[in-house]
């Protein structure tokens, strides 16, 4: 079963040209709505599928994982973005505007094929947002519930690689070295994230994405600077490692400089979040913030954080 969105199907057909495809499936949607997952599972069962090949970004990989979760079918993942889902055992689905995630080794792809040339067609804006999604995996891994010296080391190297690769992609979308560095960083970010688990940043983004149907990568890009600025003073060792990976004196300064250099998405209001949704979002997010977060999260400071992310103000200004 070949899974690819309509925008990626041409690449997918090229990738799969040497194998026999029993079913080509294009009904892919962000955040994997449960009804689409059930439809895809039924299609796989009806066709007698024995292997899933997903070509694309996080939504495509996510749908393959949803099928594997109940069928146990193996996955070959061919990523065309920097989402990193292909290297984790984390699955996610959305039902009734609520995103539910879980961990199960059955959804971890058996094989991943990375080819920088397959990412050339990813528009610069989406490349930047997707790369910042990977960067969020790295930064959140520094203080996530399962954070340890190993996944922190992977995350730090991921930050370095992404901060090198993304500006090169911005300058030249077909810069092979830049694309390779971004894929390398995305892989490291995913392995770190799978080990460390979801920290404060990911909990915020999962709620916002599921409840308000916000675009996944752009949401990560807009929220990340504010979570980093929020947690850094309470986690000085982690902040120092992040700063060093950026080659900056301070972690927040390093991220701000990168975002400015690559013209990163800044404001949630530009991507579908209404200001009127913020109070409700606060109530949805508070119960899922990990108790291990280095700084205590309250209704007031979370409201301030979301307000700043909605407006797109630069932390510290």
Automatic annotation (TrEMBL):
<dbReference type="InterPro" id="IPR034786">
    <property type="entry name" value="MAR"/>
</dbReference>
<dbReference type="GO" id="GO:0018506">
    <property type="term" value="F:maleylacetate reductase activity"/>
</dbReference>
<dbReference type="InterPro" id="IPR056798">
    <property type="entry name" value="ADH_Fe_C"/>
</dbReference>
<dbReference type="InterPro" id="IPR039697">
    <property type="entry name" value="Alcohol_dehydrogenase_Fe"/>
</dbReference>
<dbReference type="Pfam" id="PF25137">
    <property type="entry name" value="ADH_Fe_C"/>
</dbReference>
<dbReference type="Pfam" id="PF00465">
    <property type="entry name" value="Fe-ADH"/>
</dbReference>
<comment type="similarity">
    <text>Belongs to the iron-containing alcohol dehydrogenase family.</text>
</comment>
<keyword id="KW-0520">NAD</keyword>
<dbReference type="GO" id="GO:0046872">
    <property type="term" value="F:metal ion binding"/>
</dbReference>
<dbReference type="GO" id="GO:0004022">
    <property type="term" value="F:alcohol dehydrogenase (NAD+) activity"/>
</dbReference>
<dbReference type="InterPro" id="IPR001670">
    <property type="entry name" value="ADH_Fe/GldA"/>
</dbReference>
<keyword id="KW-0560">Oxidoreductase</keyword>
<protein>
    <submittedName>
        <fullName>Alcohol dehydrogenase, class IV</fullName>
        <ecNumber>1.3.1.32</ecNumber>
    </submittedName>
</protein>
<feature type="domain" description="Fe-containing alcohol dehydrogenase-like C-terminal">
    <location>
        <begin position="128"/>
        <end position="310"/>
    </location>
</feature>
<keyword id="KW-0614">Plasmid</keyword>
<feature type="domain" description="Alcohol dehydrogenase iron-type/glycerol dehydrogenase GldA">
    <location>
        <begin position="17"/>
        <end position="115"/>
    </location>
</feature>
């Amino acid at each position: 079963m070949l899974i690819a969105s309509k925008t990626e199907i041409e690449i997918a057909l090229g990738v799969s040209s040497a194998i026999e495809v029993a079913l080509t499936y294009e009904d892919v949607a962000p955040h994997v709505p449960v009804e689409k997952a059930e439809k895809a599972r039924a299609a796989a069962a009806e066709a007698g599928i024995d292997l899933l090949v997903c070509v694309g970004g996080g939504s495509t990989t996510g749908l393959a994982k949803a099928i594997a979760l109940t069928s146990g079918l193996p996955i070959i993942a061919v990523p065309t973005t920097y989402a990193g889902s292909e290297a984790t055992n984390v699955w996610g689905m959305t039902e009734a505007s609520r995103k539910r995630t879980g961990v199960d080794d059955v959804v971890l792809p058996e094989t991943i094929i990375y080819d920088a040339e397959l990412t050339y067609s990813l528009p610069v804006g989406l490349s930047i947002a997707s790369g910042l999604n990977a960067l969020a995996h790295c930064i959140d891994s520094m203080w996530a519930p399962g954070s340890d010296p190993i996944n922190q080391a992977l995350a730090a190297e991921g930050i370095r690689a992404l901060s090198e690769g993304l500006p090169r992609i911005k300058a030249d979308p077909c810069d092979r070295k830049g694309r390779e560095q971004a894929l390398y960083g995305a892989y490291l970010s995913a392995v770190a994230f799978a080990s460390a688990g979801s920290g404060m940043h990911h909990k915020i983004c999962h709620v916002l994405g599921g409840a308000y149907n916000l675009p996944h990568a752009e949401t990560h890009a807009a929220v990340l600077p504010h979570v980093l600025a929020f947690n850094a003073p309470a986690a000085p060792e982690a902040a120092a490692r992040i700063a060093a990976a950026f080659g900056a004196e301070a972690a927040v300064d390093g991220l701000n400089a990168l975002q400015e250099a690559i013209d990163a998405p800044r404001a949630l209001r530009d991507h579908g979040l209404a200001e009127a949704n913020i109070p409700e979002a606060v109530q949805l997010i508070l119960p899922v913030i990990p108790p291990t977060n280095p700084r205590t999260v309250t209704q007031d400071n979370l409201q301030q954080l979301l307000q700043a992310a909605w407006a797109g103000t630069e932390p510290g200004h």
